[in-house]
Amino acid sequence: MQTKTPHRVLMLLEDWRAGGTEEYVSQLARYLRRRESFEVFLVVLRRWESDLLPEAAEAADAVFCLGGSLPERLNKLHRLIGRLVPDVCHCHLYSSLLPVTLLLRWLRVPRIITTLHMPVTAWNWRRRMTTRLAASLADQVVCNSPVVARSLDVKCFGQGKKTTIVPPPFLPFQTAPLPEARETASAFIVCGCGRLAPEKDWPTLLRAFSILRSCVAGPVQLALVGGGPLEKSLRRLAVELGIGQFVAFMGAVAHNEALAALRKSDVSVLPSRFEGLGMAALEAMQCGVPTITADFPASADFIEHDVTGHRFPRGDSKSLADLLLWHYRNPEDSRAMGRRGQEAVIRQYSEDGTFAQYPSVYLEKA
After folding, report:
1. Which among 196, 192, 328, 325 is positioned nearest to 261, based on CA atoms?
2. What's the CA gap between 114 and 131, in Å, rounded?
3. pLDDT at residue 4 tops 70
């Protein structure tokens, strides 16, 4: 009996670091490889965070890091495609999306899929224009949330152009239950997970935490899980606010370590000004941790305010502090909210309802 040749999928990323895009791609690659009809190759255009290389290598059949200037990267990609002859090129790109898409079109790759992980409206006018143009050249566009889909101008697409929403699924091992109660003498722990980058707006959380400390007598701590370019300035701000000794900067850690930090916390906060979805908040909710986010549009897709979590006006540290104080003073109600949030996201983000869509996206005739 003749064995069917697996479909070759090239997944292209700008970088490989500890972020939501990389986690999405890693989970998708593993899902596809469990299906014997797919081979998956990861192509990183620019650079690695070297300690994360084993995770990427485990997810895919092979991993390639190109490097160099943009023309050099495109030349290396040209040669790599000629060698691997992929059936599908799946782009998870940002600044390189348009030049890479033009190259793939010129090479006549059988099927080009673009997944957008951030709302187009989050970028400046030049990036918005190039992203929409690149999307119009793809055979299909996948958005990781309804907000990202709504940010696309449908007029940029040709006749019959399709968009599909495929959020990331949650894996069963991430749903370990929290302890039923915390020791009375232990500190109230606030946790923020994500890159220390401007769009995450960590200064708002630091200011809110400072207000919380001034309002309560018991011990409180803040854990920031993630690395990034703003770490030094955030450390300075913590000292200026008088909370330096109460804030733990944990740096970039492995995914299981980030989940462990979440599970030890009493409340999770994602204060971002914009997100394509908000994976850090969703994973906290899946762990059963009561969760607060800023009111970036995507958060309304998975948080019902006062029911499954809390939302506050972006940049409003006083409103965030009031919510933190509510969680501090109402531990039983807070935990009940965490359980409702956990039930909601597990129901909404199963693998059968998310990544199971990709094989048909890949195999559909252009």
Report:
1. 192
2. 10
3. no
What is the phi-psi region of residue 241: left when phi exceeds 0, alpha when psi lies from -120 to 50, beta otherwise? alpha
Three-state DSSP class for 1?
coil
Q: pLDDT for 269-322, tens place per residue? A: 999 998 888 889 998 999 999 999 999 988 998 999 999 999 999 999 999 999
Query: What distance in Å separates the CA atoms of residue 127 and residue 118, rounded to the nearest whole number?
Result: 12
Tally of CB atoms within 10 A around 329: 12
Looking at the fold, whether 221 and 341 belong to one and the same domain comes out as yes
Question: CA 114 to CA 136: how far, in whole Å?
Answer: 10
Q: Does residue 1 sit within a domain?
A: no
CB 138 within 8 A of CB 112: yes
Phi, psi dihedrals of residue 86, rounded to the nearest 5°: -75, 150
Average pLDDT, the chain: 88
97-106 and 70-84 helices, crossing angle to 10° = 40
- The C-alpha atoms of residue 155 and residue 121 are separated, in whole angstroms, by 15
Residue 93 lies in domain: 7-169+350-363
- Write out pLDDT tens, residues 64-75: 999 999 999 999
53 pLDDT more than 80: no
Tokens of 40: 């998956």
Q: Using alpha carbons only, how large is the chain's radius of gyration in Å?
A: 21
